[in-house]
Design goal:
The protein is an alpha/beta fold and 248 residues long. The protein has one domain: TIM Barrel (Alpha-Beta Barrel), CATH 3.20.20.70. Helix content is 40%, strand content 16%. The longest helix is centred in the C-terminal third of the chain and has 19 residues. It is globular. Bound molecules: 2-phosphoglycolic acid. 2-phosphoglycolic acid (PGA) binds next to strand 8.
Length: 248
């Protein structure tokens, strides 16, 4: 088992230039925990400044278009992210699947575009609350995996983020047993499709991760790190999650 822990901040639509100092503080603190890979995905507008302020650190986008260029007003191509210094892109976040009607096929195309541009990809999946309550969460997420994970990639460059929609920004989290069951099912589906390469793919948990619950959630079976929203916006909240990951 050679998977390194991976803790990723998703700043969503938060952050003006003044927030670059928080990113610098996060990356500086993360240097003390070199066993953990740390990335921050700020709004597009901050990527260039963050890369300049934290050279060599992993900075990413929160979305990309599947096309390489063209008449897509307001969109950003994966190669543009790479050109601005990003090394990572999140695709298929539930806020995009729901709010922008992105299908599994759309997410797969975005993942392929990110990989083709040389980026690492974090591909998000996760069930809504009614699906969890009806007992169908694993089937739902495995269908998302089947429909949105591309073929023929370097397994080190594609991570899955399991983010139950009802846990995002709510303070609610699944039980450790439910997290382990879901991550085990995802690993099983990846192994069935990709064989031994699936052992190198990281599966992150996301949804209300904070400094208090990180050890428990990240310590669950087949959990290789966290995708963090609200608690990634300041060093004071994010660094304890990195520290927790370093102890595992
Ligand atoms: P949260 O968001 O940590 O604020 O729940 C996680 C995410 O949406 O990636």
């Amino acid at each position: 088992m050679t998977r390194r822990k991976y803790v990723v901040g998703n700043w969503k639509m938060n952050g003006l230039s003044a927030a670059i100092g928080e990113a610098q503080a996060i990356f500086a603190a993360a240097d003390d925990h070199a066993v953990v890979d740390v990335a921050i995905c700020p709004p597009f507008t901050l990527i260039g400044a963050m890369v300049a302020a934290a050279p060599g650190k992993a900075v990413g986008g929160q979305d990309c278009h599947s096309a390489t260029s063209g008449a897509f007003t307001g969109s950003v191509a994966a190669a543009m992210l790479a050109d601005s210094g990003a090394s990572v892109v999140i695709v298929g976040h539930s806020e995009r699947r729901e709010g922008f009607a992105e299908s599994d096929a759309d997410v797969r195309a975005k993942a392929e575009a990110g990989l083709a541009a040389g980026l690492s990809v974090i591909l998000c999946v996760g069930e809504p609350r009614e699906v969890r309550e009806s007992g169908g969460a694993i089937d739902y997420v495995l269908a998302q995996i089947a429909g949105s994970v591309p073929e023929g990639f370097d397994p080190h460059r594609l991570a899955i983020a399991y983010e139950p929609i009802w846990a995002i920004g709510t303070g609610l989290v699944p039980t450790v047993a439910d997290v382990a069951a879901m991550h085990g099912a995802i690993r099983g589906a990846l192994t069935a499709r990709f064989g031994g390469a699936a052992e190198d793919m990281r599966i992150l948990y996301g949804g209300s991760v904070n400094g208090e619950n990180a050890v428990e959630l990240l310590g669950a079976g087949d959990v290789d790190g966290a995708l963090v929203g609200g608690a990634s916006l300041t060093a004071a909240k994010f660094v304890p999650i990195v520290e927790a990951a370093a102890t595992l």
